[in-house]
Design a protein that fits this description.
Helix content: 10-25%
Order of helices and strands: HEEEEEEEHEEHEEHEEEEE
CATH class of the largest domain: Mainly Beta
Distance between the termini: 31 Å
Low-confidence stretches: 5-9, 12-18, 84-94, 97-104
Strand order of the largest sheet: 9-10-11-12-13-14-15-16
Number of helices: 4
Mean pLDDT: 83
Number of strands: 16
CATH architecture of the largest domain: Beta Barrel
Strand content: over 45%
Shape: elongated
Number of domains: 2
Largest sheet: 8 strands, antiparallel, barrel
CATH topology of the largest domain: Porin
Length: 286
């Protein structure tokens, strides 16, 4: 069963990481998934990545800011993009003769603001810190509302033969406790959406399922056990940072803390102790 889950998660991750296409970032803010065929002095020749048998396209280098190749190498093509056509304001429109002799005021247009680090709205990441607990945990994040908000989804499977150190309260309360899996959902708010290092705060809900040995008989000073299952739900406040190392590779760190509800009672001395979840994630943004 463990092998099947490992194969599933590995295949799931590979489907996102192994795209194999080149990406053109244009001066208009578009992102084109292509297969680059040729780069000459003035143009870039390419095909649509989804239709290899389709037509061949040519785009001027003046219209391209950066090319991100399938092998992970990026190349800046145009460090000084051509500005958008200027706005023209005509003075003197009372009659046709005045129109002909009018002076045109040309307002120089500002260069378009193109932040390559914010073009990709999705991120798939692995929680490296969870690996220390025997978990293989994937997180998916989606930016919303011009990167002012995001939603996060978590799915993890535990390969450890016993409860890990991050769940010591359960391990100390229940004999033979072993985590099975956890899922989670978060909603985050980013106060500033233009910085490569971005702070966020939000709410995070997490569900964890585990097995343990339930004591059913203590006669004759010996315990008899019955395999049982239980769960823990927690609602937590999250604080963290996203580091946009490149347009495609990001790092995320967060701390979530809040209250939990257990389907089976833990030791009384653990009542009121807050639940905590930590994330140390390396992600691919697409």
């Amino acid at each position: 069963m463990k092998v099947k889950f490992l194969v599933f998660f590995t295949s799931f991750l590979s489907a996102f990481l192994a795209f194999g296409q080149d990406v053109l970032y244009t001066t208009s803010g578009s992102k084109l998934k292509v297969k680059v065929l040729e780069i000459n002095a003035k143009d870039v020749v390419y095909k649509d990545f989804n239709t290899d048998e389709g037509p061949t396209y040519v785009i001027s280098k003046m219209d391209i800011v950066l090319i991100y190749y399938a092998n992970g190498v990026s190349e800046v093509i145009n460090t000084n993009p051509v500005p958008i056509a200027p706005m023209v304001e005509t003075v003197g429109l009372s009659n046709s003769s005045e129109k002909q002799n009018s002076v045109e005021k040309v307002k120089p247009a500002e260069k378009p603001v193109l932040n390559l680090y914010y073009l990709n709205k999705n991120m798939l990441s692995i929680n490296a810190l969870a690996l220390a607990n025997g978990d293989f945990t994937l997180m998916y994040d989606r930016d919303l509302l011009n990167s002012r908000m995001s939603v996060s989804f978590l799915a993890g499977y535990n390969f450890n033969d016993r409860m890990g150190g991050l769940n010591l309260l359960i391990a100390d309360s229940k004999d033979g406790a072993k985590k099975k899996f956890d899922v989670g959902l978060g909603v985050n708010y980013m106060p500033r959406n233009t910085k490569r290092v971005q702070y966020f705060v939000g709410l995070f809900w997490k569900y964890m399922a585990y097995d343990y040995l339930k004591v059913i008989d203590t006669s004759n000073n010996q315990k008899e056990y019955q395999p049982s299952s239980a769960y823990q739900r927690a609602l937590m406040l999250s604080n963290g940072w996203v580091y946009r190392i490149s347009p495609n590779f990001n790092f995320k760190f967060f701390v979530s803390i809040g209250s939990s509800v257990n389907s089976v009672q833990l030791k009384k001395e653990y009542t009121g102790i807050p639940k905590m979840y930590l994330g140390y994630c390396f992600g691919y943004r697409f």
